[in-house]
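Aim 2, interim progress. The first record below pairs a target sequence with its structure tokens.
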Amino acid sequence: MTAYPVKAEGVLGSGHRMGDETFIASLVACVAVGLFLIASVFVPNFFQPLTMLNLVTNNWAVISLGVGVTFLLVSGNFDLSVGGVVALSGVLAVWFAQSADGNNALSTGLGFPYWLAIVCALGGALAVGALNALFVVRFSVPSIIVTLGTMMLARGIAQVITQGSQRNTNLPPEFGILGNLTVFGTSVRLPVVLMVVLLLVAIFIEKKTVFGRLTYWIGANPVTARLSGIDRAKHLTYLYLLSAGIAGAVGILLASEFRSGYSNRGTLMEFDALVTALLGGVAIAGGFGSVIGMFFGALILAVVTTAATGMVLSPDWQFILKAVAVFLAIVTQTWALARRNR
């Protein structure tokens, strides 16, 4: 992957970095709109307001995960554990909330009050984030290796708790409320609203706060950041806890939506979140990218997937289309930015 050039003054927010990121985000948005129009030609009934809305609402989980993944990529680190955390937090929420007097092992839980089950499940997710930070920051293990390991660890624990199946019985009546609650008398569900709020907060942090600027600085030039007195260890710890917390919330909401804890839930979500960030122009080497770009990258992936489904293509062809879209988008971004900075 070719890293995007980042000038030192841009990292501090003088305008060059922001200009380049706005340019890339606009380019990604244009690609998303173009792909949508092309898909509308080949897929019957694709060009409809409901389709546009569904592209966002049906992908709220991946977009939410993409926020944490984007911040970590900008800092020069990976988080491939989010899919496993989604599964683990959902399974934990169900296990903690299930009544303690079930008829069999899969219907018997710890009997916690629902609010306490949610808190404990989030605690499990944050524990994975803390473990990621410990090995990446304290022991300097490459983040891609650490987070692959914790992804498998989290999913393995979920499989042990569910015995390779799922837990979906003996739950309190309120368990399914959060994941299916609609707001303001519309069909928009609470998880979608939380995704929008998360995006807005992330954009504000990225553009308007010292924390956001330090994230870019650490990713663009870690040596300079260290010599400038920035506490890289603490900053990365916060980022890993943020990413794990988001993944935990996503897992709990999905478990509530389907009223079940499923050990295979969230499979490949970590790669979808990574792909959406890369499609959105986030540099894999760190120091460049934006949450807005990630959002439009997610729309590109959603358009390609939805169009492939509408054309009744086999899953094999859908994977090929995704790969082609990712390749073309990244090559186009790299070429366009190189020409712009000549």
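The second target in this work package is listed in the same format:
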Amino acid sequence: MNRIIGANQATSDARGKPEVRWLTVDDESAGQRLDNFLLRHLKGVPKTHVYRIIRSGEVRVNKARAGADTRVAAGDEIRVPPVRVAEPKPLDGAQAAPAREFPVLLEDEAVLAIDKPAGVAVHGGSGVSFGVIEQLRRARPLARTLELVHRLDRETSGILLVAKKRSALKHLQDQFRDRETGKTYLALVVGDWPDKLKVIDAPLHKYLVPGGAGEGERRVKVVPKDDPDGMRAITLVKVRERLPGFSLLEVTIKTGRTHQIRVHLASQGHPIAGDEKYGDFERNKALHKQGLKRMFLHAWRLQFNHPGTGERVELLAPLPPDLQAFTAAP
């Protein structure tokens, strides 16, 4: 069964025959290529068909023919001929992401900051059907843009930023790339962390451990500074509290390498409690019986410049109840 884009009262003639559709370019879409603009608005229309109607001249920008690479500007009027779109096939129940909202730390027209629970991936892939971003999109079907600004490991809880505008996404990602953000985590490590060890500056290298399915498992290790495959990684460490057999640390990362905190702390002989990939596996079994069911790593504080106002923003996400309870236990 097909439906026709623009086949409504506003775009049909007296006989009900579909006519052309007119789209107005808003500020968010300004600067996009014409083909990308149309692909966003004509979801379900094959790319080949979109390019055909552009080449044929059926698409007009301000009443003039335009090429696929034409950059649209705010206020431009785009003429789109009636095009047919196949009805989307319903997703298998196991594959469809359930709609879900998460605790909100900040939300305005540009940014959504949530407190992500542990055990939830930020996006689908690598054996995970869906993650936070897919669930948010299902919960907010009218949202024009919801894009992850950065990532958190599946077992890490805490602050996760989502952009609600494409301009905000670029602005925030530039800040993360240029190290203009402040990212501090709370991590409980095994043993007594030495006060003098405040900076870890050790390159990291990603590699694959062969897996049963043939795809392998992603791992990271510290390598010598002259290793050509090493990526520089800098971690700052401050002891927040000393507990029997453990140290609660405030960990600030100056670079955003995969598994950086987990690998850096473990490389110093103090793995994160509950870390099943880089931790003390026998100790983890005992911790599980004592009530620690997950890795003790939490994205606690995030500082960034607001993409709209330019003001410096600081967000805090308190330790979740299960981690608080573990540190408070006698």
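The chain is about 20% helix and 30% strand. This observation will shape the mutagenesis plan for the next reporting period.
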